[in-house]
Amino acid sequence: MSALKNTWYFPDMFYPASTELNGYVSHEAICVLNPSNQDASLKLTLFYENSEPIEDLCFVCKARTTNHIRLDQVKDRNGDPIQKEVGYAGMLESDVPVVAQYTRVDTSQGNLALMTTLGVGE
What we know:
By secondary structure, the protein is mostly beta strands. The chain has strands spanning 5-14, 20-21, 24-25, 27-34, 40-48, 54-61, 65-70, 87-106, 113-118, 120-121. The relative contact order is 0.38.
């Protein structure tokens, strides 16, 4: 079974309040590994419970590299950032099989919390 997939799902995403603790800032990232010899064109869709999805967020992961997509730096078509303190989910599509992992750094609880997991791929 290969860990390389073209579509990855992240069902439990949550952008915590922007706070800082010991130099760390709350943020999320989708980390993509592209071990192939071809650049990967990536498309990210974010789904919310009570609003329309944010679609067509596009990125590239160069061949034989990794790309850490910092979600606190992503803007929608209107230039708005991802909503904070709202649960959502993500779907990452790639034209080249890749590996994708989701990480959350949360400094809002008084202690640094780090959560990371591979997405569900198909």
